[in-house]
Each structure stands twice: as C-alpha cells, then as structure tokens.
Amino acid sequence: MKKLKRSARLVEMTQYLLIHPHLLIPLTTFAERYNAAKSSVSEDLAIIKEVFESEGLGKLHTLAGAAGGVKYIPKIPKDLSLEMMKKICKLLEEPGRILPGGYLYMSDILGQPVYINEIGKMFASIFSNLEIDVIMTVETKGIPLAYAVASYLNLPVVIVRRDNKVTEGSAVSINYVSGSNKKIRMMTLSRRALKEQSKVLIIDDFMKAGGTIQGMKDLLEEFNAKVVGVGVFVESREEGFDDHLITDYVSLAKITSVELKSKKISVYPGNYFDNE
After folding, report:
1. Which domain holds residue 141?
2. What CATH number is attached to the domain comprising 12?
3. Are residue 159 and residue 50 in the same domain, yes or no?
4. Cβ-Cβ contacts under 8 Å for 56 (sequence gap 6 or more)
5. What distance in Å separates the CA atoms of residue 160 and residue 26, rounded to the nearest whole number?
6. 67 with 161, same domain?
7. Count of H-run helices and E-run strands, the chain
8. Does the pLDDT value for residue 252 go beyond 80?
9. Which one GO biological process term can you cite for this protein (predicted)?
10. Is residue 1 part of a domain?
11. What is the tens place of the pLDDT at every residue in 15-62?
12. Which stretches of the chain are DSSP H helices?
C-alpha cells in the first residue's frame, strides 16, 4: 500500500481493526502496510485506543515484545446496551406479534442489520473474556443472531439441524424433549462440523422452557465438547411458569406476560440487566 497521510492512515487502520476483532495483529503488519515507522504506528494506535474507549466502541489490548501486537476487543457499555434493549422491548410488545401458543414474531427484528448487529455486539461483549472455539445455534431463526455474535468474536458458527442432510455427511443425532410441549424431537450435527473437546458458546433466539438448549448440551456431550456459555435473546418468564430446564444463561429480554385475548405483551430487559 502506498504511503498515506496520518489522517488517512488513522481511518484505514481503524477499519482494519474493526473487521479483524479478537485477532492479535503485529505492529510490523501495520508498519509494512502503511510504509510507516513502528513509532508512528504506536502513536496512531494510542489515538484510536483513546477514541474507542471514550466513545464506548471497544478496547485495544497491546502486548509488548517480539511476539506482541495489538488486539481489538469489541465492547458496548452496559448502559448503552440497556438503552437499546428498552427500544427493542417496546417493539416486541406490539400486539400483532402474538403467535399461537404465546410465541412472538421476531423475524423482522432479527432481519434488521441495525438491531441484529447491536444484539450480536452485546453478546460478544458479555462473553468476550471466555475461551471459546465456536458459536453454536439451532436452525433456523437463531442463525443470523449466531453469525452476528461470531462476527464480533471472530469465530466460526456451527448449526444444529432438525434432520440429517446428505450434504452434511456423517452426523450424530439425538432425541430430546421439548420443554414447552414435552414432545420428542430430533436434532443432528455433522461430525465434521465440530472438533472433539471444543469450547462452545450456545446462542439462541428464544427460550420458553429450555428444552432445545438442553438438547444441544446433550448433543455436545457426544463430541466431548464443553459449553462455556449460553446466550438467549428473549426468554419467557410468564407468571405461573418457572420450569426452566436451563439455569445458567444470559438473556437480553424477557416476556413476563402474554394476554391472548387483549393481545397485550409485557417485555422487559433480561437477566443481564437485573443488577442495574
């Protein structure tokens, strides 16, 4: 790349860091990329670090030494996350979202880049300190959410299927009990999709009783994998129903009541914000 003025270099360097989160980048990479001295690169990074942290855009971790470099960690302050989730909760309370069985229509929110990116960044902030190898979700509505989280953690995504597909090759299948209606269902995962003893972060769009997430945890035992965290976009916490199969999880929103006749829904920020 040709030699850039400092202002242009700052812009390009910032963009490079944003699209390479959680990756240790040696200073020599930037020095060679911009035909600049390492001292100049260090000064530029100090400016970017100050802006990132003051504006709540994330953190820059610098490691000294020959094997060192800089790593961008996407972070969103909890107060800004709460502000965004309050807006999303208002959207979820729209009467037209009620589906048979008390479920909510959320596909439009999960299909909006402005929302899905913010939700992904929230989960990435929450779980950024964990050692994770892959993000796991179950088809289908959880897929865009899982990829949003993965993009900020710079990790691959593993998708659990409802049935075995020939294009997936050899697979492991298990039966699990749906927590909400107690029906026996099946889920399957390609043997090539996940390495043995992987550390897995489970991301799901909706949890009523937790049967699907428990099924994924059981499936992971077949791979000798470890669940290091569970993130749920919306959980059901309706009065009179407190039979969750999963207790160790982080939710961003919770439904506390659904009145089918009046089509009234009450949605509040999830357990991540309980201490606020």
Report:
1. 78-273
2. 1.10.10.10
3. no
4. 75, 76, 77, 80
5. 36
6. no
7. 8, 10
8. yes
9. negative regulation of purine nucleobase metabolic process
10. no
11. 999 999 999 999 999 999 999 998 999 999 999 999 999 999 999 998
12. 6-18, 27-34, 38-54, 78-92, 107-110, 113-126, 143-153, 211-221
The pLDDT value given to residue 179: 61
User: HSE (CB half, 13 Å, CA atoms) of 95?
Assistant: 6
Q: How many domains are contained in the chain?
A: 2
216 lies in the same domain as 138: yes
pLDDT single digits (tens) 65-107: 766 799 999 999 999 999 999 999 999 999 889 887 667 899 9
182 token code pair: 């107690």
Radius of gyration of the chain (CA): 21
Mean pLDDT of 233-254: 84
Average pLDDT over residues 237-259: 83
> What are the residues whose beta carbons fall under 8 Å from the beta carbon of 130, sequence distance 6 or more?
199, 201, 228, 229
Residue type, 242: D
Provide the CA 90 distance to its chain's centre, in angstroms. 21
DSSP 230-262: EEEEEEE--TT----S--S-EEEEEEEEEETTT
Domain end among 54, 74, 94: 74
CA-CA distance, 186 to 188, in Å (whole number)? 7
pTM exceeds 0.90, yes or no: yes
d(CA 161, CA 139): 6
pLDDT band at residue 239 using 50, 70 and 90 as cut-offs? low
